Amino acid sequence: MLRILDMIAARATALAAVLGTVGLIAEVVVILIDVTGRYFGHPLTGAQDITQMSMLVLVFGGMALCDRQGGHIAVDVFERAFPGWLIRLGDLAAALVGAAIFAGVAYNMWFSARMSVMLHQSTNILYLPFAWFKYYIVATSAITAFGMALRFLVLLTGGRVVRETATGDHAT
Question: How many CA atoms lie within 13 A of 77 on its CB side?
């Protein structure tokens, strides 16, 4: 069962990462066009709107992948001094708290997106609806929370978390 859930998490994480990559490419292209246009006296209209919204896509799209690969900042100054059970407890707590935080982000952003729809909130220049991006944050935060909850379950059942590297290899 955990293997099937892990496969689902891996595919959802990959989708979020691809969307984050699209956000990064959009941001780079928009900034390049805007800077070039400014040089010639014609900046890109709405560049700030696109840059801000693509930053949301980039950050939240990469969050699940960062967690899956173990890319979060870890301070292990005292790790050698702690007993193994305390380190394991810390890993369990980190996965559970992380899942709760991202579930909370998804939950609260859902209501914020609904409010944005009701109030017709949008960006200042291009009038991009905020709700689209907020629902994206809901989805990617839910994917991240799912991945962290799955990591908690694997650790709780005594399994080892296998991390995927950028090359597709596996590390522990």
Answer: 1
Could you list the beta-strand ranges (E) of the chain. 163-164, 170-171
- Least confident residue range of 25-29, 130-134, 162-166: 162-166
- How does DSSP classify residue 170? E
Is the separation of the CB atoms in 126 and 49 below 8 Å? yes
CA distance 21 to 62: 8
Unique residue bearing structure tokens 């709405």: 46
The two structure tokens encoding residue 43? 């900046």
User: Which own/partner contact pairs does 120-129 have at CB distance under 8 Å and 24+ positions apart?
Assistant: 123/46, 123/49, 123/52, 123/53, 124/48, 124/49, 125/45, 125/46, 125/48, 125/49, 126/45, 126/46, 126/49, 126/50, 128/49, 128/50, 128/53
Query: Sign of the CA dihedral 79, 168, 4, 71?
Result: positive
Q: Which two tokens stand for residue 42?
A: 């014609």
> How are the residues of the chain apportioned to helix, strand and coil, as percentages rounded to the nearest 5?
70, 5, 25
What is this structure's pTM?
0.86
pLDDT of residue 171: 54
DSSP 115: H
